[in-house]
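Researcher: Structure prediction, please.
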Amino acid sequence: MVHAVLIGAHAIAAVVAFVSGLLVAWNMPARMNARFGAYVAALGLMLVFLLLAIATDWFELESMKRAIFLGLLVLGTYTAFRGWRAMRELRSHMRPEASVGDVGFTLIALFDGFMIVTAFDVGSPIWLVLVVGALGIVLGIVSIHYLKCRAVQRAQRLGQ
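Model: Predicted structure follows.
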């Protein structure tokens, strides 16, 4: 029961991080604001709930699942770090376009996580899971490039 609640909280935090991250990336603020703060906080909560969910079942997990969950924890930690780094960059340099790459990384990681979990849950073959993950990465990279260009143009229009 506790594990299911923690997984649910992890998923909700991930969705909030993704949605707020999309809003932030689409219209990167010139300085910290509540939306950016919500995005970074949701990333942190997502990581905390993942850690707690893994910890509740750690001793019942077989070795392969432990290794997979440790890998997910490392990816989650790096994803949260990239969100924190985007916030730090925005605070220190006030160059919105510099933060788009970090926010973009987190969006790609979250999107791929959603797609991979969904593909596994519906019983998709592993090749399809890999294709979906690869497409998410490629589309994400193209989208982030567009958003970086957009942020630079917006900053130039605003005289930053």
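Model: The radius of gyration is 17 Å.
Researcher: Thanks, that helps.
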